[in-house]
């Protein structure tokens, strides 16, 4: 059974936390890449992002703790997914609006 690190319940996701998490260009890029997948391992997501592995780990943690992503640990692999349904339930249209605006850059 996969392990799951701390991530907030849907009801505990805050707008301030989500907006803070998505305010960083690297984290916004990670979220954008996850929008087109059903989950990705950490090394695959950050493959072309020019940041140190420890910095990417920090960004993954911020996204997870804000409730933007969910991470499962399967052996030595961490699989990251957008919490699209949870975010849509809390803040309808927000994630799509942010990602569409980012895609228009």
Spell out the key features of this protein.
105 residues, alpha+beta, globular
Question: Secondary-structure blueprint of this entry?
Answer:
Elements: H1 15-22, H2 25-35, E1 40-41, H3 42-45, H4 53-66, E2 69-74, E3 77-82, H5 84-90, H6 94-103
Antiparallel strand pairs: 1-3, 2-3
Helix pairs in contact: 1-4, 2-4
Walk me through the structure:
- This protein has 105 residues and is α+β, with helices and mostly antiparallel strands.
- A hairpin with a 2-residue loop joins strand 2 and strand 3.
- It is globular, with a radius of gyration of 13 Å.
- The protein starts with 14 loop residues before the first helix and ends with a helix.
Overview in brief:
The protein contains six helices and three strands. It is an alpha+beta fold and 105 residues long.
Helix fraction, binned, reads 40-55%
Number of strands: 3
Q: What can be said about the biggest beta sheet?
A: 3 strands, antiparallel
Uncertain residue segments: none
* Class from helix and strand fractions: alpha+beta
**Shape by Cα distribution:** globular
Strand content: 5-15%
Mean pLDDT: 91
Distance between the termini: 40 Å
Total helices: the number is 6
Q: Kindly provide the radius of gyration, computed on alpha-carbon positions and rounded to a whole number of angstroms.
A: 13 Å
């Amino acid at each position: 059974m996969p392990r799951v690190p701390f991530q907030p319940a849907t009801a505990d996701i805050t707008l301030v936390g989500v907006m803070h998490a998505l305010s960083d260009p690297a984290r916004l890029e990670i979220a954008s890449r996850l929008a087109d997948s059903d989950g990705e391992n950490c090394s695959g997501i950050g493959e072309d992002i020019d940041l140190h592995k420890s910095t990417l780990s920090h960004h993954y943690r911020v996204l997870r703790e804000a409730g933007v992503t969910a991470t499962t640990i399967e052996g030595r692999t961490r699989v990251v997914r957008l919490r699209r349904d949870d975010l849509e339930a809390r803040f309808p249209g927000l994630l799509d609006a942010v990602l569409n605006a980012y895609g228009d850059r």
